[in-house]
């Protein structure tokens, strides 16, 4: 598309000055690394000097091709225990499928910070004691550092290098950080898993929202504090609090898109760049399907494509979920199913009817672009959610963990997708009914196509939005005028609880006085009556 390229060229020309940018990209989870890499690519495409620093917390193997811009310098930081990390199997988190413990917000707030933060500890500790690499970074005279607010060591690196940092988030939002940038509470605006949205939401929904957001807050706070503590230990003297480091920036970049996401009150400091990972032009010209897939799609009129992403494994799905899915396959013999299934499993294959094809690898973009694929069944990682939104394809979202339930609800509210509880995978009948409805009822496609149109025509291109705000923030790295001052007050002043309290008391007192006066008047009147008689 010409306008997009033109925009990029114009941006390059209009650059006030090229900056020397350090992107801190810790390797611990594929979707995080992917988003940060894509961000780095875009910034480098716009003419800045970008260096990506990658400390390895786990030996993720598929991160190699993520940095595409050839001008980017990559510094991989392999810790001393890297050989051990290599020996470990890539975690596939089978427990996330159906463990009620893993899915419990209270438990996860106690276990997750240490379990996940613990993964970061060894490499980060070594990094902060490695004067050689720290000096090397310092000598490169970076203007600014970009880091995600999840693995937060980057902010301490920026502090050591005495350069400003700009926080970003590969997910839609993180309330404890959003609030440091002036965003009010999302209660009621962003429904939590299992909650209805206002005005349908009732008391139990609101209670559920409060419960889940509270423990989500607690989890992320404890995760940051855990890292804060071991970084302080590694450096060996008191360090600034993580929140104070993160909140110096004039902007906070998030992977939300205002036209896809729930409408929440926000401020100009929070920059929504969701959609930067999408290349509409490339999506319109996907690779042609191989003959094998052409044949599969020709088998029946409708095809459904199932993929639970690359972290969780379909073959590790609990057996009762598999049984429900198989029942659905058998109940819909007129539909062909392609299921991304990571293992050759003859025994399992034998349990399946003829209309199912298990594939270890699938050409996802080409399948999503094909009209004959009527429905995409997905776990709803944010990457897939964006991709689905931008293909205009109906989707059955079956969230498994993390931010996936929120992503599912976010997409479902546009009417082209349905959020489906993973525990209901075991219910073959319900699953059949849902899939049949989504394949045959055209309203899902109409709504999904409408969303695609909206996203393609959103007033400000997400990449442009990113670059304009980033360049502004690099120019004015401490500018905080867009953060409301009310943000620095406590809960009472923030919500005017003192005034509400005093006015309530005054009203009660007033009513009491009026009541007393009326009482006296009544007595006087009845006294007079008695006298007259
Ligand atoms: C960017 O890199 C080029 C080539 O290495 C160098 O000449 C230029 O000075 C760098 N610019 C900044 C702002 O560091
Ligand atoms: C979550 O934390 C943020 C920031 O500390 C705060 O503004 C918000 O009220 C908290 N929400 C709940 C439900 O605890």
From TrEMBL:
> In the UniProt record, does the keyword Cytoplasm occur?
no
Main subcellular localization, coarse class?
membrane
UniProt keywords, alphabetically: Glycosyltransferase, Membrane, Signal, Transferase, Transmembrane, Transmembrane helix
Carries keyword Cell membrane?
Answer: no
User: Matching InterPro entries, A to Z?
Assistant: UDP-glycosyltransferase, UDP_glucos_trans
Question: Which reactions appear under catalytic activity for this entry?
Answer: glucuronate acceptor + UDP-alpha-D-glucuronate = acceptor beta-D-glucuronoside + UDP + H(+)
- Which CDD domains does the entry link to? GT1_Gtf-like
One Pfam assignment: UDPGT
Q: What is the topology of this protein in the membrane according to its UniProt annotation? A: Single-pass membrane protein
From the record, give the transmembrane residue ranges.
495-521
Q: Name one GO molecular function term.
A: UDP-glycosyltransferase activity
- According to its UniProt record, this protein's enzyme class is transferase
The EC number of this protein is 2.4.1.17
This protein's GO cellular component annotations are: membrane
- Extent of the signal sequence: 1-18
Where it sits in the cell: the answer is: Membrane
Q: Give the family, as the similarity comment puts it.
A: Belongs to the UDP-glycosyltransferase family.
Protein name according to UniProt? glucuronosyltransferase
- Which species does the entry assign this protein to? Caenorhabditis elegans
């Amino acid at each position: 598309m010409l306008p997009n390229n033109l925009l990029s060229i114009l941006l390059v020309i209009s650059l006030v000055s090229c900056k020397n940018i350090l992107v801190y990209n810790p390797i611990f989870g594929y979707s995080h690394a992917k988003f940060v890499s894509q961000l780095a690519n875009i910034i480098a495409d716009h003419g800045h000097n970008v260096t990506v620093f990658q400390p390895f917390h786990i030996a993720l193997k598929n991160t190699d091709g993520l940095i595409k811009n050839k001008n980017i310098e990559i510094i991989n930081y392999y810790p001393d225990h890297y050989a051990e990390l290599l020996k470990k199997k890539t975690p596939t988190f089978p427990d996330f499928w159906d463990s009620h413990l893993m899915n419990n917000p209270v438990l996860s707030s106690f276990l997750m910070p240490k379990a996940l933060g613990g993964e970061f500890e060894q490499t980060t500790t070594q990094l902060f004691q490695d004067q050689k690499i720290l000096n090397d970074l310092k000598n490169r005279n970076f203007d600014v550092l970009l880091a995600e607010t999840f693995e937060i060591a980057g902010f301490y690196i920026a502090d050591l290098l005495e350069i400003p940092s700009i926080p970003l988030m590969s997910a839609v939002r993180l309330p404890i950080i959003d609030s440091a940038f002036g965003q009010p509470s999302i209660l009621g605006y962003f429904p939590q898993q299992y909650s209805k949205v206002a005005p349908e939401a009732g008391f139990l929904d609101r209670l559920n929202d409060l419960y889940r957001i509270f423990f989500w807050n607690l989890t992320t706070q404890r995760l940051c504090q855990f890292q804060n503590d071991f970084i302080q230990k590694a450096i060996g003297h008191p360090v600034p609090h993580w929140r104070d480091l993160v909140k110096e920036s004039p902007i906070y970049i998030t992977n939300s898109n205002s036209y896809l996401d729930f409408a929440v009150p926000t401020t100009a400091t929070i920059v929504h760049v969701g959609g930067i990972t999408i290349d509409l032009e490339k999506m319109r010209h996907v690779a042609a399907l191989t003959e094998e897939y052409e044949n599969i799609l020709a088998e029946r009129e409708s095809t459904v494509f199932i993929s639970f992403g690359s972290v969780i494994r379909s073959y590790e799905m609990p057996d009762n979920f598999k049984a429900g899915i198989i029942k659905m396959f058998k109940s819909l013999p007129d539909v062909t199913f392609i299921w991304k299934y990571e293992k050759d499993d003859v025994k399992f294959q034998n349990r399946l009817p003829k209309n199912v094809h298990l594939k270890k690898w699938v050409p996802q973009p080409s399948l999503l672009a094909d009209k004959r694929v009527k429905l995409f069944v997905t776990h709803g990682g944010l990457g897939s959610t964006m991709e689905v939104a931008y293909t205009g394809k109906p989707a059955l979202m079956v969230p498994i963990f993390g931010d996936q339930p929120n992503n599912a609800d976010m997409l479902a509210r546009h009417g082209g997708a349905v959020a489906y509880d993973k525990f209901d995978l075991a219910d073959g009948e319900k699953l059949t009914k849902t899939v049949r409805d989504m394949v045959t009822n055209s309203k899902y496609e109409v709504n999904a196509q409408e969303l695609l149109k909206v996203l393609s025509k959103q007033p400000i291109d997400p990449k442009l939005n990113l670059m304009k705000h980033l360049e502004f923030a690099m120019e004015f790295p401490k500018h905080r005028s867009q953060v409301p001052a009310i943000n620095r007050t406590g809960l009472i002043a923030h919500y005017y609880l003192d005034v509400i309290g005093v006015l309530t008391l005054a009203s009660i007192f007033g009513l009491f006085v009026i009541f007393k006066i009326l009482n006296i008047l009544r007595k006087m009147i009845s006294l007079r009556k008695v006298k007259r008689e």
